[in-house]
Amino acid sequence: MAVKWKQLGNSPCNLCPRECQARRKDGQMGYCLSDNRIFVARAALHMWEEPCISGEKGSGTVFFSGCSLRCVYCQNYEIAAGKRGRQVSVTELAEIFLELQAKGAANINLVTPDHYIDQIASAVLAARDMGLTLPMVYNGSGYEKREVIKNLTGIVDVFLTDFKYMDEDLAEKYSKAPDYPSVAAAALEEMMQIAGEAAFDEKGMMQKGIIVRHLILPGHKKNAKAVVKYLYETYKDRIYLSLMNQYTPFAKVMEDSDHKELCRKVTKREYEAVVAYAIDLGVKNAFIQEGDTARESFVPQFDLNFHV
Protein backbone atom coordinates (compact mmCIF):
# COMPACT_ATOMS: atom_id res chain seq x y z
CA MET A 1 0.00 0.00 0.00
CA ALA A 2 1.45 3.34 -1.05
CA VAL A 3 2.23 5.79 1.74
CA LYS A 4 1.05 9.35 1.29
CA TRP A 5 2.42 12.23 3.33
CA LYS A 6 0.20 15.07 4.45
CA GLN A 7 2.26 18.26 4.49
CA LEU A 8 2.23 19.81 7.97
CA GLY A 9 4.60 22.77 7.81
CA ASN A 10 2.23 25.70 7.72
CA SER A 11 3.44 29.27 7.48
CA PRO A 12 3.29 30.89 10.02
CA CYS A 13 4.78 27.73 11.57
CA ASN A 14 2.79 25.74 14.13
CA LEU A 15 4.62 22.45 13.62
CA CYS A 16 5.89 22.02 17.19
CA PRO A 17 4.09 22.60 20.52
CA ARG A 18 5.57 26.08 20.82
CA GLU A 19 3.65 27.29 17.75
CA CYS A 20 6.05 30.19 17.33
CA GLN A 21 4.31 31.37 14.12
CA ALA A 22 7.60 32.04 12.32
CA ARG A 23 7.36 32.40 8.56
CA ARG A 24 9.98 29.74 7.96
CA LYS A 25 9.08 29.32 4.29
CA ASP A 26 10.00 32.98 3.83
CA GLY A 27 13.38 32.52 5.49
CA GLN A 28 12.43 33.54 9.04
CA MET A 29 13.99 31.46 11.83
CA GLY A 30 11.61 29.67 14.17
CA TYR A 31 12.14 28.89 17.85
CA CYS A 32 13.98 25.83 16.51
CA LEU A 33 16.57 28.23 15.01
CA SER A 34 15.76 26.90 11.55
CA ASP A 35 14.04 28.19 8.47
CA ASN A 36 12.71 25.90 5.76
CA ARG A 37 16.13 24.79 4.48
CA ILE A 38 17.45 21.40 5.65
CA PHE A 39 20.75 21.50 7.54
CA VAL A 40 22.58 18.30 8.51
CA ALA A 41 25.49 18.37 10.96
CA ARG A 42 26.58 14.75 10.66
CA ALA A 43 25.69 11.63 8.70
CA ALA A 44 27.60 8.47 9.62
CA LEU A 45 27.48 5.00 11.09
CA HIS A 46 27.11 5.38 14.86
CA MET A 47 28.02 2.64 17.34
CA TRP A 48 26.83 4.24 20.57
CA GLU A 49 23.09 3.72 20.47
CA GLU A 50 21.30 0.89 22.28
CA PRO A 51 22.58 -2.55 21.10
CA CYS A 52 19.41 -3.38 19.15
CA ILE A 53 19.77 -0.09 17.26
CA SER A 54 23.51 0.05 16.56
CA GLY A 55 24.23 -3.65 16.09
CA GLU A 56 27.65 -4.68 14.78
CA LYS A 57 28.07 -2.13 11.97
CA GLY A 58 26.28 0.86 13.43
CA SER A 59 23.11 2.87 13.10
CA GLY A 60 22.90 5.16 10.09
CA THR A 61 22.54 8.40 12.02
CA VAL A 62 21.62 11.70 10.42
CA PHE A 63 21.92 14.60 12.90
CA PHE A 64 19.75 17.57 11.93
CA SER A 65 20.64 21.12 12.98
CA GLY A 66 18.34 23.13 15.22
CA CYS A 67 15.91 22.00 17.92
CA SER A 68 12.47 23.03 19.15
CA LEU A 69 13.28 22.19 22.80
CA ARG A 70 16.87 23.46 23.37
CA CYS A 71 17.48 22.36 26.97
CA VAL A 72 20.05 24.38 28.93
CA TYR A 73 22.14 21.23 29.47
CA CYS A 74 21.89 19.97 25.88
CA GLN A 75 24.50 17.33 25.09
CA ASN A 76 24.47 18.32 21.40
CA TYR A 77 24.20 22.06 21.97
CA GLU A 78 26.34 23.05 18.97
CA ILE A 79 23.79 21.67 16.53
CA ALA A 80 20.74 22.42 18.68
CA ALA A 81 21.69 26.08 18.45
CA GLY A 82 22.03 25.79 14.68
CA LYS A 83 25.79 26.49 14.79
CA ARG A 84 26.73 23.38 12.86
CA GLY A 85 25.24 22.12 9.64
CA ARG A 86 25.53 21.74 5.91
CA GLN A 87 22.55 22.55 3.72
CA VAL A 88 21.15 19.64 1.74
CA SER A 89 18.20 19.24 -0.59
CA VAL A 90 15.48 16.62 -0.26
CA THR A 91 17.11 14.66 -3.07
CA GLU A 92 20.53 14.84 -1.41
CA LEU A 93 19.01 13.68 1.88
CA ALA A 94 17.47 10.67 0.14
CA GLU A 95 20.89 9.89 -1.35
CA ILE A 96 22.46 10.09 2.12
CA PHE A 97 19.99 7.47 3.36
CA LEU A 98 20.90 5.17 0.47
CA GLU A 99 24.64 5.67 1.01
CA LEU A 100 24.28 4.74 4.68
CA GLN A 101 22.37 1.62 3.65
CA ALA A 102 25.20 0.72 1.25
CA LYS A 103 27.67 1.07 4.13
CA GLY A 104 25.81 -1.63 6.08
CA ALA A 105 23.76 0.54 8.45
CA ALA A 106 21.27 -1.35 10.60
CA ASN A 107 18.69 1.41 10.13
CA ILE A 108 18.32 5.09 9.26
CA ASN A 109 18.34 7.07 12.49
CA LEU A 110 16.78 10.55 12.25
CA VAL A 111 18.17 12.63 15.13
CA THR A 112 16.14 15.72 16.12
CA PRO A 113 14.00 15.58 12.98
CA ASP A 114 10.70 17.19 13.99
CA HIS A 115 11.23 20.70 12.59
CA TYR A 116 12.15 19.28 9.15
CA ILE A 117 9.58 16.50 9.14
CA ASP A 118 7.88 17.49 5.87
CA GLN A 119 11.16 17.46 3.96
CA ILE A 120 12.39 14.30 5.72
CA ALA A 121 9.21 12.39 4.90
CA SER A 122 9.58 13.36 1.25
CA ALA A 123 13.19 12.16 1.31
CA VAL A 124 12.22 8.84 2.92
CA LEU A 125 9.56 8.16 0.28
CA ALA A 126 11.96 9.13 -2.51
CA ALA A 127 14.69 6.89 -1.09
CA ARG A 128 12.28 3.97 -0.86
CA ASP A 129 11.47 4.40 -4.53
CA MET A 130 15.23 4.15 -5.15
CA GLY A 131 15.71 0.99 -3.08
CA LEU A 132 15.81 1.94 0.61
CA THR A 133 14.63 -1.01 2.71
CA LEU A 134 15.99 -0.22 6.19
CA PRO A 135 13.80 0.54 9.22
CA MET A 136 13.40 4.25 9.91
CA VAL A 137 14.17 5.36 13.48
CA TYR A 138 12.68 8.61 14.82
CA ASN A 139 15.10 9.88 17.46
CA GLY A 140 13.49 12.89 19.12
CA SER A 141 13.07 14.88 22.31
CA GLY A 142 9.53 13.68 23.06
CA TYR A 143 8.30 17.28 22.77
CA GLU A 144 6.19 16.74 19.67
CA LYS A 145 2.60 17.32 18.72
CA ARG A 146 0.44 14.23 18.72
CA GLU A 147 -0.91 15.00 15.25
CA VAL A 148 2.63 15.22 13.87
CA ILE A 149 3.47 11.80 15.29
CA LYS A 150 0.22 10.35 13.92
CA ASN A 151 1.22 11.50 10.45
CA LEU A 152 4.35 9.32 10.64
CA THR A 153 2.33 6.15 10.04
CA GLY A 154 4.05 4.28 7.22
CA ILE A 155 7.15 6.52 7.46
CA VAL A 156 8.66 5.53 10.84
CA ASP A 157 9.15 2.01 12.19
CA VAL A 158 11.00 2.58 15.48
CA PHE A 159 10.67 5.44 17.95
CA LEU A 160 13.78 6.21 20.00
CA THR A 161 12.29 8.98 22.07
CA ASP A 162 13.17 10.94 25.19
CA PHE A 163 10.94 11.36 28.21
CA LYS A 164 12.77 14.03 30.16
CA TYR A 165 10.40 15.28 32.84
CA MET A 166 7.39 14.48 34.95
CA ASP A 167 8.07 17.65 36.94
CA GLU A 168 6.59 20.71 35.20
CA ASP A 169 8.79 23.10 37.18
CA LEU A 170 11.94 21.31 35.99
CA ALA A 171 10.63 21.34 32.44
CA GLU A 172 10.18 25.10 32.70
CA LYS A 173 13.53 25.70 34.37
CA TYR A 174 15.66 23.64 32.00
CA SER A 175 13.66 23.63 28.74
CA LYS A 176 11.20 26.55 28.96
CA ALA A 177 8.46 23.99 28.34
CA PRO A 178 6.23 23.49 31.42
CA ASP A 179 3.82 21.50 29.26
CA TYR A 180 6.52 18.92 28.44
CA PRO A 181 5.07 16.09 30.63
CA SER A 182 1.60 16.26 29.07
CA VAL A 183 2.90 16.81 25.53
CA ALA A 184 5.38 13.93 25.75
CA ALA A 185 2.76 11.62 27.26
CA ALA A 186 0.33 12.31 24.41
CA ALA A 187 3.05 11.89 21.78
CA LEU A 188 4.08 8.56 23.30
CA GLU A 189 0.50 7.31 23.21
CA GLU A 190 0.46 8.00 19.48
CA MET A 191 3.84 6.32 18.99
CA MET A 192 2.38 3.18 20.53
CA GLN A 193 -0.48 3.28 18.03
CA ILE A 194 2.02 3.40 15.15
CA ALA A 195 4.87 1.14 16.27
CA GLY A 196 3.13 -1.16 18.73
CA GLU A 197 5.07 -3.77 20.65
CA ALA A 198 8.66 -4.43 19.69
CA ALA A 199 9.72 -6.83 16.94
CA PHE A 200 13.29 -7.93 16.20
CA ASP A 201 15.04 -9.71 13.34
CA GLU A 202 17.18 -12.84 13.65
CA LYS A 203 20.20 -10.74 14.68
CA GLY A 204 18.30 -9.05 17.51
CA MET A 205 17.93 -5.74 15.69
CA MET A 206 14.73 -3.82 16.40
CA GLN A 207 12.51 -3.63 13.32
CA LYS A 208 9.60 -1.88 14.99
CA GLY A 209 8.79 -0.73 18.51
CA ILE A 210 9.59 1.96 21.05
CA ILE A 211 12.61 2.72 23.22
CA VAL A 212 12.07 5.54 25.72
CA ARG A 213 15.22 7.21 26.96
CA HIS A 214 15.62 9.09 30.20
CA LEU A 215 18.83 11.05 30.78
CA ILE A 216 19.25 11.23 34.55
CA LEU A 217 20.28 14.70 35.71
CA PRO A 218 22.46 15.35 38.77
CA GLY A 219 20.38 15.90 41.88
CA HIS A 220 17.12 14.85 40.24
CA LYS A 221 16.49 11.24 41.25
CA LYS A 222 12.93 12.14 42.20
CA ASN A 223 12.11 13.26 38.67
CA ALA A 224 13.81 10.19 37.20
CA LYS A 225 11.83 7.84 39.42
CA ALA A 226 8.60 9.63 38.54
CA VAL A 227 9.36 9.17 34.83
CA VAL A 228 10.11 5.47 35.30
CA LYS A 229 6.97 4.97 37.39
CA TYR A 230 4.73 6.65 34.81
CA LEU A 231 6.20 4.73 31.89
CA TYR A 232 6.05 1.34 33.57
CA GLU A 233 2.60 1.75 35.06
CA THR A 234 1.25 2.96 31.72
CA TYR A 235 2.99 0.61 29.28
CA LYS A 236 4.52 -2.21 31.37
CA ASP A 237 6.93 -4.12 29.10
CA ARG A 238 5.34 -3.07 25.82
CA ILE A 239 8.10 -0.47 25.56
CA TYR A 240 11.81 -0.60 26.36
CA LEU A 241 13.33 1.86 28.81
CA SER A 242 16.84 3.22 28.42
CA LEU A 243 18.21 4.71 31.64
CA MET A 244 21.19 6.90 30.84
CA ASN A 245 23.97 8.04 33.16
CA GLN A 246 26.01 9.85 30.50
CA TYR A 247 25.09 13.43 31.40
CA THR A 248 28.17 15.58 30.78
CA PRO A 249 28.42 19.17 32.10
CA PHE A 250 29.86 21.10 29.15
CA ALA A 251 31.42 24.56 29.37
CA LYS A 252 28.15 26.19 28.34
CA VAL A 253 26.33 25.03 31.48
CA MET A 254 29.41 25.40 33.70
CA GLU A 255 29.43 29.11 32.88
CA ASP A 256 25.72 29.50 33.65
CA SER A 257 25.29 30.87 37.18
CA ASP A 258 21.57 30.01 37.18
CA HIS A 259 22.16 26.26 36.91
CA LYS A 260 25.10 25.46 39.16
CA GLU A 261 23.43 22.21 40.22
CA LEU A 262 24.10 20.87 36.72
CA CYS A 263 27.86 21.45 36.95
CA ARG A 264 28.68 17.88 37.93
CA LYS A 265 28.16 14.37 36.64
CA VAL A 266 25.55 11.96 37.97
CA THR A 267 27.04 9.91 40.79
CA LYS A 268 27.18 6.13 40.75
CA ARG A 269 24.92 6.10 43.80
CA GLU A 270 22.30 8.30 42.10
CA TYR A 271 22.23 6.15 39.00
CA GLU A 272 22.11 2.86 40.87
CA ALA A 273 19.24 4.16 42.99
CA VAL A 274 17.14 4.84 39.87
CA VAL A 275 18.03 1.45 38.34
CA ALA A 276 17.13 -0.31 41.61
CA TYR A 277 13.82 1.55 41.70
CA ALA A 278 13.01 0.36 38.18
CA ILE A 279 13.83 -3.24 39.10
CA ASP A 280 11.70 -3.03 42.24
CA LEU A 281 8.77 -1.78 40.15
CA GLY A 282 9.07 -4.86 37.94
CA VAL A 283 10.71 -3.37 34.85
CA LYS A 284 12.23 -6.12 32.69
CA ASN A 285 12.72 -4.52 29.28
CA ALA A 286 15.40 -1.94 29.92
CA PHE A 287 18.86 -0.84 28.88
CA ILE A 288 21.33 0.46 31.46
CA GLN A 289 24.80 1.93 31.08
CA GLU A 290 27.93 0.69 32.77
CA GLY A 291 31.22 2.47 33.37
CA ASP A 292 32.10 6.10 32.71
CA THR A 293 29.95 7.20 29.81
CA ALA A 294 29.82 10.83 30.97
CA ARG A 295 32.70 11.93 28.78
CA GLU A 296 32.88 14.28 25.81
CA SER A 297 34.30 11.44 23.69
CA PHE A 298 30.82 9.91 23.69
CA VAL A 299 29.43 12.95 21.86
CA PRO A 300 29.91 12.76 18.07
CA GLN A 301 32.09 15.28 16.28
CA PHE A 302 29.82 17.57 14.30
CA ASP A 303 32.47 18.26 11.70
CA LEU A 304 30.14 18.58 8.69
CA ASN A 305 32.00 15.72 7.03
CA PHE A 306 29.47 13.13 6.01
CA HIS A 307 31.15 9.76 6.53
CA VAL A 308 29.06 7.92 3.97
UniProtKB/TrEMBL annotation:
<feature type="domain" description="Radical SAM core">
    <location>
        <begin position="62"/>
        <end position="180"/>
    </location>
</feature>
<comment type="similarity">
    <text>Belongs to the organic radical-activating enzymes family.</text>
</comment>
<protein>
    <submittedName>
        <fullName>Radical SAM protein</fullName>
    </submittedName>
</protein>
<dbReference type="GO" id="GO:0046872">
    <property type="term" value="F:metal ion binding"/>
</dbReference>
<keyword id="KW-0560">Oxidoreductase</keyword>
<feature type="binding site">
    <location>
        <position position="74"/>
    </location>
    <ligand>
        <name>[4Fe-4S] cluster</name>
    </ligand>
</feature>
<dbReference type="InterPro" id="IPR016431">
    <property type="entry name" value="Pyrv-formate_lyase-activ_prd"/>
</dbReference>
<dbReference type="InterPro" id="IPR007197">
    <property type="entry name" value="rSAM"/>
</dbReference>
<keyword id="KW-0479">Metal-binding</keyword>
<dbReference type="GO" id="GO:0051539">
    <property type="term" value="F:4 iron, 4 sulfur cluster binding"/>
</dbReference>
<dbReference type="InterPro" id="IPR058240">
    <property type="entry name" value="rSAM_sf"/>
</dbReference>
<keyword id="KW-0408">Iron</keyword>
<dbReference type="Pfam" id="PF04055">
    <property type="entry name" value="Radical_SAM"/>
</dbReference>
<feature type="binding site">
    <location>
        <position position="71"/>
    </location>
    <ligand>
        <name>[4Fe-4S] cluster</name>
    </ligand>
</feature>
<keyword id="KW-0411">Iron-sulfur</keyword>
<dbReference type="GO" id="GO:0016491">
    <property type="term" value="F:oxidoreductase activity"/>
</dbReference>
<dbReference type="InterPro" id="IPR040085">
    <property type="entry name" value="MJ0674-like"/>
</dbReference>
<dbReference type="InterPro" id="IPR013785">
    <property type="entry name" value="Aldolase_TIM"/>
</dbReference>
<keyword id="KW-0004">4Fe-4S</keyword>
<feature type="binding site">
    <location>
        <position position="67"/>
    </location>
    <ligand>
        <name>[4Fe-4S] cluster</name>
    </ligand>
</feature>
<keyword id="KW-0949">S-adenosyl-L-methionine</keyword>
<dbReference type="InterPro" id="IPR001989">
    <property type="entry name" value="Radical_activat_CS"/>
</dbReference>
